[in-house]
Amino acid sequence: MSKASRGARRRERRPRNGGNNESTPAVAVPPPDASKPWVGLGVVAIVAAFLCPVVFTGPSRMDDPATILLNPHFDPPTFTAGKVLWYWSNSDGLGLYIPITYTTWGLLARATYVPTPDELGQHVDVRVFHAASLAWHLINVGLVYALLRGLLTRQVAGRDPRWPAAAGALLYGLHPLQVEAVAWLSGMKDLMSASASLGSVLLYLRAVDPAPGTTSGSRRAMYVTGLLLVPIGMLCKPTAMVAPLIAAALDLLIVRRPLRRVALAIAPYLLAALPLAIVARVVQPLAGVPAPPIWQRPIVSGRRLLSTSRS
Prior knowledge:
Layout: H1 3-13, H2 38-51, H3 64-69, H4 81-89, H5 99-112, H6 126-155, H7 162-174, H8 176-183, H9 188-208, H10 216-236, H11 243-255, H12 259-283, H13 297-310
Helix pairs in contact: 2-6, 2-7, 4-5, 6-7, 6-8, 6-9, 9-10, 9-11, 10-12, 11-12
């Protein structure tokens, strides 16, 4: 036998794992430790500490008088069958169909209404409205933390995903674009819609990409709950219709499931959003809304971001 043949046979018999005949186990990505929630709770506490002064500020002059403070449906606020039916069968003064938000405003107005107005002519306590908005925002910060932590678990294998998730949640919680909605009474609709949207995306991803040990029943429950949160969010504000598209993008680009499986999983979510999307298009007037050319829209959006960041 030639030397070349003997060398080839030796290479065939040589183990591929560096001489160890035992198979090398794959490095598993440790799941997030649910028993140590202090990082997420710390993020929520920091945001609450920074934004708690908002509770003691006054209302905005832009939409708050028309939507809440001087709204005849809240002066006085009643919850007769006819009034509740009005909340669910009419749009607000801005042409938005937001019955869950209107019902929430009505409950807060009912809880704080006084027959004699204060020196500003207000019959309701705006501090309660601000406190409710802050509570919704803190819920959203926690949902953002949970969402980022789940996505980063697969991206930073072998490292703790809590700290980058905490940084992202802090950026979300303290960014001027988010704080604006907290300081604006009428912005509660944005916060409530965001809560439902974030919850829907989070539950969808946990259903289609479950953690080890998740039962099929839990997966179905998460999927169905996320599905129900889509129309709930749209009844708070129609912009929640984008939640299924965000979930599909994360599923395809981060979770990296095949396109066909993503399409099949997200289709019921899109169908759930379709009826209320049609209602929003019919109800909300477009008269007087400027419509710049498509190529100018990124410029307008960028200018809006810059002006808000400087405020």
